[in-house]
From TrEMBL:
Protein's UniProt name: TetR/AcrR family transcriptional regulator
Record-annotated DNA-binding residue ranges: 38-57
Organism: Cellulomonas humilata
Pfam families hit by this protein: TetR_N (PF00440)
HTH tetR-type domain span: 16-75
InterPro entries the UniProt entry points to: Homeodomain-like_sf, HTH-type_TetR-like_transc_reg, HTH_TetR
An annotated Gene Ontology molecular function: DNA-binding transcription factor activity
PANTHER family recorded: HTH-TYPE TRANSCRIPTIONAL REGULATOR BETI, HTH-TYPE TRANSCRIPTIONAL REGULATOR RUTR
Alphabetical UniProt keywords: DNA-binding, Transcription, Transcription regulation
Length: 188
């Protein structure tokens, strides 16, 4: 009778695969259960032990930075577009990310509280600042709108998401809230 095959410990050779599996699992778990989901759930979903997770990401914030770096890079790429409507595209994506992955916002909040020296809290405002004046000059948004106003509205969107009972209600409520604000935010 053949002996069952054992999977061998591949050690360092498995590190890139493990890292990718952890990041994929963290994205799913954060989206489903929020930023404060147990890290053990992420390790289990990735098919690795907690020690492997902590070897790659010593803290929740380290893991969240790695997960959401792709989002920040995407937002910065949108902001780098020379189009007048880049702000509208950026804003649309920020709202989508806030609705779909509220953990993205929770990570920013945690970073601001625990790592005040990090620049992560400045990356989104910088992207808004790079795009907003062009949209205003093109008459696409209210000329009096400031970067601080945009960030405040994004925080309001997060508040709607955080207090919604389910994802469907969150999306519907966000669209309704933004429709109420459209006369204030849109072109004059």
């Amino acid at each position: 009778m053949p002996t069952p095959s054992r999977t061998s410990n591949r050690g360092p050779a498995a590190a890139p695969e493990n890292r990718r599996a952890i990041l994929d699992a963290a994205r799913r778990v954060f989206a489903d259960r929020g930023y404060h989901a147990p890290l053990s759930a992420i390790a289990q979903s990735a098919g690795v032990g907690q020690g492997v997770l902590y070897r790659h990401f010593p803290s929740r914030l380290d893991l969240a930075f790695a997960v959401f770096e792709e989002h920040l890079a995407e937002l910065e790429a949108i902001a780098a577009l020379p189009d007048d409507d880049a702000f509208l595209r950026l804003w649309s994506r920020v709202v989508e990310l806030t609705v779909e992955e509220s953990a993205f916002v929770e990570m920013f909040l945690d970073a601001r509280r625990t790592l005040p020296e990090t620049d992560i809290g400045e990356r989104l405002p910088a992207s808004v600042a790079a795009t907003l004046p062009r949209a205003q000059a093109a008459g696409l948004v209210n000329a009096r709108l400031t970067v601080a106003d945009v960030i405040l509205v994004q925080r309001m969107v997060y508040g709607v998401v955080a207090t919604s009972l389910d994802a469907g209600q969150a999306k519907e409520s966000v669209h309704r809230a933004l429709a109420l604000l459209r006369p204030l935010l849109g072109p004059e």
